[in-house]
């Protein structure tokens, strides 16, 4: 029997959608106002879901406190109130789209949980725009 547990979190961050190898005009045509050279920000909402077998001794799939600590260490501390383009190493050469942010978060959390657990990340960039990533 496999069960899914979920934990919500949030972080606030600035970013700019921009490719260094494109001209300003091409970046502006593709990314529009999100290509603002002075950046823009979002209040990101995050749901992290872990699916696995219930441990018969504890009754947990994964202790939610452990999951909360992983999220804090891997996402909230490094991303919250940061400029993703300038302050987060993973985005030095990776455009910080919601899709790429979700994949980066998935990779950071996946390395901290049991390999037989499934992981799903849902990242809300706005109330209406969100991305789901479950791994490759």
TrEMBL record:
Annotated SUPFAM superfamilies: Tetrahydrobiopterin biosynthesis enzymes-like
Keywords: Lyase, Metal-binding, Queuosine biosynthesis, Zinc
Cofactor: Zn(2+)
Cofactor binding mode and count: Binds 1 zinc ion per subunit.
UniProt pathway annotation: Purine metabolism; 7-cyano-7-deazaguanine biosynthesis
Residues that span the membrane, as ranges: none
Catalytic activity field: 7,8-dihydroneopterin 3'-triphosphate + H2O = 6-carboxy-5,6,7,8-tetrahydropterin + triphosphate + acetaldehyde + 2 H(+)
Keyword Lyase recorded: yes
Pfam families, alphabetized: PTPS
EC number in record: 4.-.-.-
UniProt key word Phosphoprotein: no
PANTHER family xref list: 6-PYRUVOYL TETRAHYDROBIOPTERIN SYNTHASE, PYRUVOYL TETRAHYDROBIOPTERIN SYNTHASE
Family in the record: Belongs to the PTPS family. QueD subfamily.
Name of the protein in question: 6-carboxy-5,6,7,8-tetrahydropterin synthase
